[in-house]
Write a structure and sequence with these properties.
By secondary structure, the protein is an alpha/beta fold. The strands form four sheets. An eight-stranded mixed β-sheet has the order 8-9-7-17-18-19-16-20.
């Protein structure tokens, strides 16, 4: 018998703001009995729900059970910035250009985006929750502008379109004089991540069983089946897909190979009319990957608000510290004031931490871990697009369907092993601080 017990369960610091600014959800339905299924999916985020949808596309008769430790859209899926990016977006680089086959990466990302937009159409998810409107890399310094020029040249070699915006155009878009230039790329889908994930879950519910607040404490192979245990129930199934990102390591897989990074974000209260000039909605990623992401939303997305996302910490224990939260809040206040001095001193309504899982060589953990046990994990900070993609791939592998996605994911090497602790902890956090310092005004 093969058995794997969770050493720790997910812990999230701060409110899931993207969900909090939407109308309330129905009460959760936890798993309280012992049931059977054809496939059990652990995790109801981008990867898990995408895996469930892909399974049903392949075989609509499948009996599927999805388990989540918390509420839909209140874990990592509701704590990102909502950028579903098609182009290379390597967070370890200086200008996002990837180190591998960027054409293949882009093609795969676009398959994931098409899958998400198809789901949005099928399940009547509002357009504002999944809008293919593109994004801008904002530059606030000469160095940042040089990064954008370098990235634009790289995109040109790939045959990809981009448009450089000057300072006046950036002010017209954002209402801020902070930016010297921006690089617009059209293929990004801007999500209200909680709205999209809630809509995806609601659309799938008639075809499967979804149990929230049902943390998986262990999985064990008994005969030809896997026994998935929760606090008050269990699922027995011949196939299981682990779609729990870095939490996979808690079950003993990919030990000492996954980097657990937290990024932090703050969101304003609803802004008074006319408080910020510019467009109603926009998304700006920094020209330097360690800079500050800014986003303006409006309407049914949750009212007119601005999100500031920056600051990072390496936390192998998968829990953001209170000190890290306080530090991030101070940085957010300063970055927000730099961009919108007319709103200096505005109290943020929400601040939260979001858990990212990265590997040193930027590969996912997607494939068959043991017989009948599959993973769709380690999204390398690109959880919306890559989570969708790995969920699709894991479902196809589980159903023995060969596609471009499965071939690409199977070709990935194993994640590179991390240096021993405490050297990895100290080194990683010092490196992140240095990268933040070097990003400067970005």
């Amino acid at each position: 018998m093969s058995a794997h017990h969770a050493r720790r369960l997910p812990v999230h610091k701060g409110p899931a703001a993207w969900s909090a600014i939407l109308p309330g959800q129905p009460a959760p339905v936890p798993l309280t009995d012992n049931i059977t299924a054809d496939v059990a999916v652990v995790g109801a985020g981008f990867a898990g729900l995408s895996a469930a949808r892909r399974l049903l596309q392949i075989d609509p008769s499948l009996k599927i059970v999805v388990l989540d430790a918390g509420r839909v859209a209140e874990g990592a899926a509701g704590r990102n910035s909502g950028f579903m990016i098609d182009l290379p977006h390597d967070l370890a680089s200086d200008d996002y250009a990837g180190s591998g086959d960027d054409r293949t990466v882009t093609a795969l990302n676009r398959q994931a985006i098409a899958f998400a937009l198809s789901a949005a159409e099928d399940y009547a998810i509002p357009h504002d929750f999944a809008a293919p409107v593109g994004k801008v890399n904002g530059a606030a310094s000469a160095a940042g502008h040089a990064h954008n020029e370098s990235y634009a040249r790289h995109l040109s070699t790939l045959g990809e379109a981009s448009e450089m915006l000057d300072a006046e155009e950036m002010e017209e878009l954002t209402g801020s004089r902070h930016y010297l230039s921006g690089l617009y790329t059209p293929g990004t889908v801007m999500l209200q991540p909680a709205g999209y994930i809630r809509g995806l879950a609601a659309g799938l519910k008639p075809q499967l069983r979804l149990h929230e607040t049902s943390a998986v404490s262990g999985i064990a192979r008994i005969g030809n089946d896997w026994h998935v245990s929760t606090t008050h129930g269990s699922v027995t199934a011949p196939k299981v897909i682990m779609a729990n990102n870095g939490q996979l390591e808690s079950f003993g897989f990919a030990r000492h190979r996954l980097m657990h990074i937290f990024l932090y974000a703050s969101m304003t209260p609803v802004l008074p009319d006319g408080a910020v000039k510019g467009a109603d909605r926009w998304g700006v990623t920094p020209s330097d990957p360690m800079g500050t992401t800014m986003r303006k939303i409006s309407g049914i997305q949750g009212g007119s608000r601005i999100v500031t996302r920056t600051a990072a910490s390496f936390k192998p224990g998968m829990v953001a510290s209170d000190a890290a939260m306080k530090r991030a809040r101070r940085i957010h206040d300063q970055k927000f004031s730099n961009r919108f001095p007319e709103l200096q001193g505005m109290e943020m309504e929400y601040t939260w931490a979001g858990h990212l899982c990265l590997s040193r060589n930027s590969v996912s953990v997607t494939g068959e871990l043991e017989e009948g046990l599959f993973a769709a994990c380690c999204q390398n900070g690109l959880g919306t697009a890559r989570g969708t993609l790995t969920g699709m791939g894991a479902a196809e592998m589980a159903m023995e369907v060969e596609t471009d996605i499965t071939r690409a994911l199977r070709a990935d090497p194993e994640p590179t092993r991390l240096p021993p602790r405490p050297f990895s902890d100290i080194g990683a956090n010092l490196y992140l601080r240095w990268k933040e310092w070097r990003a400067g005004a970005e």
